[in-house]
Each structure stands twice: as structure tokens, then as C-alpha cells.
């Protein structure tokens, strides 16, 4: 399980972009800010009762959950078409800030509990001059995400077919003595799998069997539970015997074909595709660029390139939805991925990618900085496209 840790200082994208939960741009900073209305309550008894009219520009609303259920708060236009800010589940008894940049107009708030109950505030007016830094989007629905999941699973099915073919070729290579050929076919199959990073939860136990790391296992690299691509990687680059490599490769091939057979019957959660659009590259920063998932092949740059492709796969599935709901966010995400792709491609040399440790300090800093910027651009996607899944525990 990947623990999602925010590693990046939130920098505002150039110009007027202000994503949910992030500081708005300087474009609105010159506008008079609304007086602090004090904590606004949310509970089953009401949605922000007492909310007052605001000035256009940046407002900071302090949301206090006085009820017994987590609540999600959104600021909407008066037709409930566009969302201007979203504060994800506020726990009972807590107070959190909701920062929003609003133009002149009429607005309201919605408050959704984790059992799916939705309440609405009284409408309120925003007065004042036009402002920059406004960001709005159309909230996604379960139907929207269902279509995206269907599109994504079609791509994954094709990717799994290629993966099975390439693990077959890897296993066939172990019948010979050519370690260079085995390493080459290992990398091809491994990168196939890395491009499928958006469905590791869907894969269940197969994810660890195929791509698990030895960290956390009682015996580390010697633990019987350590299998899959990284087991083979360790053996190939640490003088494992032919028999060990052959056995590990045979097991990998069997697990991959097991996954291919199981996948049509596995379920992908609706929120997984937007979440992984950010998380795949976040995992790249946490594990790959730090060398934590390198068991000897020094293939971190090739893995990063595959993870970019994997992110593009999730974004492609979401493209119709983002074109409708937030085309500016889609354009920003595509542009940032292109920039990162160009940086990684520029590091490719004849014969492949160099090891990360062979990069100059300037190259490493450029790679890290570009990846950080890409993550910043992708960060709003999970929030904007997330739908609340009912969790009625009564």
C-alpha cells in the first residue's frame, strides 16, 4: 500500500490558476477581503447557517463540524452547476479553513455527509469588482467516473496482454546462458507493468506477487514472500544462480497469466483513476528517484519514463470528463507531462538511460524540479473528480 505523503511545497502555477485547497494567486490579493464571519457550522442540522454576503476576491471561511458525521463542503454557484472550492471530509469536532476566490455573483454552499445526505446553505451574494484567480469546475458524478473506469480498464486489458507476452519471452530467455538478453527482456516486461500503475489496488494480492519490494519482509531479499520483478532483478544483478533465476521467472510468468485471467472479474473503484493520475508520479518521486525500488538494475530513469506513460494512460481515460468539467486543468496537466517527458527524454543516451547516480547535480535538480511542478499541476485532479462513496455505518 502506498502511503500518500505530500512532498511538495505548494507553488501557484503561473498566471491565474488557483486550485481547490491551495492558496489563490496574487491576482486577487489587491481586492478587499471579506471580514471574517467567524466559524461556520456544518452538521446534520444545517449547512453553514449564518453565512453572510462576501466581497469578491479571496475569502477564508472557517468551517466547524458540530455534528457526528464527517462532512464535505463545496462552494457552488446559484444554479449548482459550478464548484469554486471544495473542502474534503471535515471530521466531527474539528475546524478547518476553506479558501476560495469568488467573482461577483450569487452563490451557495453544499454540505455532504458520509452517508450521502446533502444539505444546502442559504444563498449569499458576492459584491465588488471583477477579480482574477477565479477557478471553477463542474463536479463529477458516479456515471462520469464509471465511463472513465471503463475506458481505462480497456487500456489496462491491452497492457496486460503485452505484459504476458513479454514475461513469456523473459521466461524463454532463461533457458539459455545469455544474462545480457535476460536482463534486456526483464526490463521490457518490467516497464510494461510499470505503465499499469493506476490499478495496483485492483490487482489485489497479485500486485505484491508481481512487483513487491523486500522492505518490511522478515528476511528481506531472502524472504520466501519476496517474488516477482524485483526478486528477479536482485538475482540478475547480484549473481543469482541460473536455477534461481529460472524458478523466479517461471513464478512471475505464472502470476502474470493468473492476473490476466483474474482481471476481468476484479473491480476498480470509481475514484481510483483520478487518484492515480497524481499518485503514480508521486510514487516515482518517493521510491524511484530516491533509489528505494532499485535492486541493482539502476533503471530509475526508464521506470520514470514508464510512469509518465502510465499517468498519460489515466489522463487519457479522464480526458472527455476533464474537457467538459475543467478544460484549463486538462491543458495544464498535459503541458506539465510534456515538459517532464522532454526532460527525461533529454537524458536518454545511445544504449539506454544512465543510472540516476550518474546524473550531474544540474540534471538531477532539473529532473526533481520538473517532476515537482508536474505533481503540482496534477494535484487538483483527484479533488475535482472525486465523488463521495456512501459509507452509512448506522
TrEMBL record:
InterPro entries for this protein: EfeM/EfeO_iron_uptake, Imelysin-like, Imelysin-like_EfeO/Algp7, Imelysin_sf
Q: Which UniProt keywords apply?
A: Signal
One GO cellular component term of this record is: cell envelope
Main location, first listed in the record: other
Q: Where is the Imelysin-like domain?
A: 148-365
What compartments host this protein? Cell envelope
Q: Pfam families given for it?
A: Peptidase_M75
- Entry-linked PANTHER family: IRON UPTAKE SYSTEM COMPONENT EFEO
Q: Which family does it belong to?
A: Belongs to the EfeM/EfeO family.
Which protein is depicted? Iron transporter
Amino acid at each position: 500500500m502506498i502511503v500518500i505523503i505530500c512532498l511538495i511545497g505548494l507553488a501557484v502555477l503561473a498566471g491565474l490558476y488557483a486550485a481547490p485547497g491551495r492558496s489563490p494567486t496574487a491576482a486577487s490579493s489587491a481586492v478587499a477581503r471579506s471580514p471574517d464571519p467567524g466559524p461556520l457550522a456544518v452538521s446534520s442540522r444545517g449547512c453553514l447557517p449564518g453565512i453572510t454576503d462576501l466581497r469578491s476576491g479571496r475569502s477564508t471561511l472557517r468551517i466547524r463540524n458540530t455534528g457526528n458525521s464527517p462532512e464535505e463542503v463545496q462552494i457552488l454557484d446559484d444554479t449548482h452547476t459550478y464548484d469554486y472550492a471544495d473542502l474534503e471530509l471535515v471530521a466531527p469536532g474539528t475546524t478547518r479553513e476553506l479558501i476560495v476566490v469568488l467573482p461577483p455573483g450569487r452563490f451557495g454552499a453544499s454540505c455532504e455527509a458520509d452517508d450521502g445526505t446533502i444539505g444546502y446553505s442559504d444563498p449569499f451574494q458576492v459584491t465588488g469588482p471583477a477579480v482574477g484567480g477565479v477557478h471553477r469546475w463542474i463536479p463529477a458524478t458516479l456515471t462520469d467516473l464509471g465511463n472513465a473506469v471503463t475506458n481505462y480498464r480497456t487500456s489496462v486489458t491491452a497492457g496486460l496482454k503485452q505484459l504476458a507476452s513479454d514475461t513469456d519471452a523473459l521466461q524463454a530467455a532463461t533457458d539459455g546462458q545469455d544474462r545480457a538478453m535476460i536482463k534486456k527482456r526483464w526490463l521490457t516486461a518490467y516497464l510494461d507493468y510499470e505503465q499499469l500503475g493506476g490499478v495496483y489496488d485492483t490487482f489485489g494480492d497479485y500486485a505484491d506477487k508481481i512487483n513487491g519490494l523486500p522492505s518490511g519482509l522478515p528476511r528481506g531479499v531472502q524472504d520466501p514472500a519476496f517474488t516477482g520483478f524485483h526478486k528477479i532483478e536482485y538475482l540478475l544483478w547480484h549473481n543469482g544462480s541460473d536455477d534461481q533465476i529460472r524458478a523466479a521467472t517461471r513464478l512471475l510468468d505464472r502470476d502474470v497469466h493468473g492476473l490476466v485471467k483474474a482481471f476481468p472479474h476484479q473491480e476498480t473503484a470509481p475514484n481510483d483513476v483520478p487518484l492515480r493520475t497524481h499518485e503514480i508520479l508521486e510514487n516515482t518521486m518517493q521510491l524511484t528517484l530516491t533509489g528505494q525500488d532499485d535492486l541493482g538494475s539502476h533503471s530509475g530513469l526508464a521506470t520514470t519514463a514508464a510512469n509518465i506513460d502510465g499517468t498519460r494512460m489515466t489522463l487519457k481515460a479522464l480526458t472527455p470528463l476533464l474537457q467538459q468539467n475543467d478544460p484549463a486543468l486538462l491543458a495544464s496537466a498535459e503541458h506539465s507531462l510534456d515538459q517532464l517527458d522532454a526532460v527525461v527524454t533529454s537524458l536518454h543516451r545511445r544504449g539506454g538511460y544512465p543510472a540516476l547516480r550518474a546524473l550531474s547535480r544540474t540534471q538531477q535538480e532539473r529532473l526533481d524540479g520538473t517532476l515537482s511542478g508536474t505533481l503540482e499541476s496534477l494535484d487538483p485532479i483527484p479533488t475535482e473528480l472525486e465523488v463521495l462513496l456512501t459509507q452509512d455505518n448506522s
